[in-house]
């Protein structure tokens, strides 16, 4: 049950030891007696959130006067990387990229270990992001500005690191999808909850760490578990008179934050109200996957066109969620209620999907050749160098361009549309970051 190893790599004096000390605090070094572990390095236990791991400082990759990456040092670093699950490459943001950084980056790109790029000494809030941006061209993905001394920025970096560590046994076992049922009062949330849990084997499980009365229910279907978040919040108002606001929007906001997929419930008889739009805004802001559940379909008089008319009207108001599946259900009769979970499966999958840099750049090339980037009034044309997916849940794509200001909203929307068309990501929002060279 040895802990995953994270190798800390970088030139001398960039702040590796300072960073390791911050990660490990004053926890004692680990003494290994299993074979295969390189003995002359110290492994320090560290943790972030609920994950334990160990960090090993490679001691600083030293270069000769021509800033050449010496073979014997390369050998040492190879050994350290061989046993690591991930590497953190530390560079000095105040100094900017150096020739040695380039050399190490080139070598790291040839390794199979995922690398997180930590741009240290970025304690200045205004300068930090700019200093970090200079390191994009190392080709190691997103540079994370941080300060090992002050601790700023290290949280985001460690969150990114956790994505690369192998899942713990516990995580493997409970590969459940977290689902929040949200909507205005009286749209039919608790009826829907009953319909969803009624036929399934439902387990009520209070979870620790959240408010005491936030009770989740887990339902299982075809071996997939769904954790329905804060079912108490959905049901409570039935029995207890707390006033509408108490179990209202703030509670919904909290549920949205914890969810993978939001079942956004609307009442077909009311259409999309201002309150609905407020919830929609928060769902988008939090980057959650969405299934639009249009309830009370039984109460609508219909002919064969009705569903299309309704879809069109609702989507016109929810145009910013046009990537989400819209499903017309009746919690009361059970119509299509089971299909909701099919939509949840797809949305959850897409929300977690990773697309290779090669595919992203194919889409970009195609898009740009149909429709070149705009030219500003000063005659300066925008240029997109390349794009890469920098995270999932929601999928986020960074685009490296000569100057973000040269890309107007129209063009940005066009590119976003092309990604949507070519890559799908059905049910999930996509985020685009336009990054300049500086
Ligand atoms: P290592 O050789 O890579 O292990 O680097 P050290 O951890 O020994 O740090 C080298 C120098 O950089 C020391 O003088 C540190 O105080 C300084 N340093 C480390 N982290 C930071 C930081 O976040 N901000 C600033 N301004 N200096 C730092
Ligand atoms: P909540 O406040 O969102 O939890 O909504 P409820 O589940 O308490 O439902 C509010 C009202 O709408 C109740 O009177 C339900 O009987 C009714 N309702 C819920 N679902 C449906 C449905 O599918 N069709 C119809 N006709 N009424 C429904």
UniProtKB/TrEMBL annotation:
Lineage: Bacteria, Bacillati, Cyanobacteriota, Cyanophyceae, Synechococcales
Quaternary structure note: Associates with the 50S ribosomal subunit.
Residue numbers binding GTP 2: 183-190, 230-234, 295-298
Signal peptide: none
Keywords: GTP-binding, Nucleotide-binding, Repeat, Ribosome biogenesis
InterPro entries per record: AAA+_ATPase, G_ENGA, GTP-bd, GTPase_Der, KH_dom-like, KH_dom-like_a/b, P-loop_NTPase, Small_GTP-bd
Species assigned in the record: Synechocystis salina LEGE 00031
Domain called EngA-type G: residue spans: 4-169, 177-352
Function: GTPase that plays an essential role in the late steps of ribosome biogenesis.
NCBIfam families assigned to the protein according to its UniProt record, in alphabetical order: GTPase_EngA, small_GTP
Family of this protein: Belongs to the TRAFAC class TrmE-Era-EngA-EngB-Septin-like GTPase superfamily. EngA (Der) GTPase family.
Positions bound to GTP 1: 10-17, 57-61, 120-123
Protein name per the record: GTPase Der
């Amino acid at each position: 049950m040895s802990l995953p190893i994270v190798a800390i790599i970088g030139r001398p004096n960039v702040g590796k030891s300072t960073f390791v000390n911050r990660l490990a605090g004053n926890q004692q070094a680990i003494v290994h007696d299993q074979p295969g572990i390189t003995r002359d390095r110290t492994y320090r236990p560290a943790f972030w959130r609920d994950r334990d791991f160990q960090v090993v400082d490679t001691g600083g990759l030293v270069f000769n006067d021509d800033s050449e990456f010496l073979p014997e040092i390369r050998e040492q670093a190879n050994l350290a990387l061989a046993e690591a699950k991930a590497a953190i490459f530390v560079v000095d943001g105040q100094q900017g990229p150096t020739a040695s950084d380039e050399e190490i980056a080139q070598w790291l790109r040839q390794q199979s270990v995922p690398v997180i790029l930590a741009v240290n000494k970025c304690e200045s809030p205004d300068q930090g992001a700019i200093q970090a941006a200079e390191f994009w061209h190392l080709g190691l993905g997103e540079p994370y500005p941080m300060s090992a001394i002050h601790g700023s920025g290290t949280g985001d970096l460690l969150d990114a690191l956790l994505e690369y560590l192998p899942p713990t046994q516990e995580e493997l076992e409970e590969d459940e999808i977290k689902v929040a049922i949200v909507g205005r009062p009286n749209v039919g949330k608790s009826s829907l909850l009953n319909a969803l849990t009624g036929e399934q084997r439902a387990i009520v499980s209070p979870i620790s760490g959240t408010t005491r009365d936030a009770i989740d229910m887990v339902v299982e279907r075809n071996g997939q578990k769904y954790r329905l978040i804060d079912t108490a919040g959905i049901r409570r108002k039935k029995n207890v008179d707390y006033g509408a606001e108490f179990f209202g929007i703030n509670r919904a906001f909290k549920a949205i934050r914890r969810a993978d997929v939001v079942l956004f419930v609307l009442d077909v008889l009311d259409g999309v109200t201002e309150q609905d739009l407020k919830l929609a805004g928060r769902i988008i802001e939090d980057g959650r996957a969405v299934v639009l559940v249009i309830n009370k379909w039984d109460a609508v008089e219909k002919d064969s066109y009705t569903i299309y008319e309704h879809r069109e009207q609702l989507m016109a108001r929810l145009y910013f969620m046009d990537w989400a599946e819209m499903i017309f259900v009746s919690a009361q009769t059970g119509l299509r209620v089971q299909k909701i979970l099919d939509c949840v499966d797809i949305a959850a999958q897409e929300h977690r999907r990773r697309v290779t840099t090669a595919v992203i750049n194919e889409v970009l090339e195609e898009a740009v050749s149909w429709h070149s980037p705009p030219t500003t009034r000063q005659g300066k044309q925008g240029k997109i160098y390349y794009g890469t997916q920098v995270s999932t849940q929601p999928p986020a794509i960074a685009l490296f361009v000569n100057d973000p200001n040269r890309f107007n909203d129209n063009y940005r929307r066009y590119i976003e549309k092309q990604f949507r068309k070519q890559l799908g990501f059905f049910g999930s929002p996509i985020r685009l970051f336009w990054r300049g060279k500086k």
